[in-house]
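In the previous chapter we treated chains in isolation. Here, by contrast, the input contains two separate entities that must be folded as one system, with a combined length of 349 residues.
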Amino acid sequence: MPIEPTPLPSPNRLVHEPARLAILTVLSSCASADFVFLQSVTGLSKGNLSVQLTNLETAGLVVITKEIIDKKMRTTVRLTDRGGGEIDEYWRTMDAIRAAMASQQQEAKAGKRRAPARPAIPRPAPAT
Amino acid sequence: MPSFAETRAVPDLDRLRLVTEHFGSLQGLRLVVFGVFQLMLMDVWWAIEGWSYTASLIATPIMIAALIAACVYIPKYYRSRFGVVGQHAAPVGRSSHPILGRVLPASILAVVILTDCFGYGIRPKGIRVGLLVFFATWLLQSSLIHPRLAALRRVYVVPMFVLAVLLTLYPLTHSLNDLQLDRWRAINRSLIGVTLIVIGLGDHILLCRLLPKPPEDDHAH
């Protein structure tokens, strides 16, 4: 009987997208970061970064603050408690996926070793 | 360097974390200013042969004005070019080593001051071991407290360490006359300043390489 693979946990798709994952990773490593730094470190264009930040703010994962300093607008972004929880949860899920994959691979290897040898096909007797 | 958004690759999250956590310490132009200031304090500029007293008199206020301007301009440059990062109250790297984080820098400072202040009679031929002790302890501290800093490959620190060792121990292996010893002392005095300038420039170049200018055009996804 074939072994049924256990269903893998699925990560939060909002966090899993590379650009948003990069933004959340940066924000989880500091108290806050401004738009210019996020753009430098992620290499995203202004428009793309703006869209991703809006998505994250709508989901309640980040807080965006705008203030005028030296006659220039500065946009500061920081992670909310929920955002911090989501990124922690994301890494737990990824660890769980990795562990599940590893155990499935081990099971598959063990299954191969335990599988009985195929019955030998009787060879026709050599013609004399 | 294409961003992961362009290449559709998985971002290098370790690099992102590392740059964010050490963003402040990689702003090397601040160190360069300290290095230049240290060279000025050590009268290295005025020891250069050919500089007349009048030239020194004119150059001093110009240099001080340039340093003050640099102190004002450099933070503004970093803010506008690379942005601003608010660090956590307790940095991640230090929180796990509170004793090393506080005791080691204090020990370095104490040893440097003590060797420089009271070691004059005991060190042979006037060898100043302060910088050597400073370098060795600093490297030890960096590797113990910030093991992940090694991932940044700040290779320019190593030649400066080797140079400090060779230069400091040079009079032990060579017999120098008084004039040569005077010159050696002048070079040795400037070593801290030169080291700060080299490491500062190295850090700045590293930061520029880690954080290249983002694309101007929009590729909205």
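The helical segments of chain A are 13-16, 18-28, 35-42, 46-58, 81-114. Chain A is about 55% helix and 15% strand. Compare these points with the single-chain example from earlier in the chapter.
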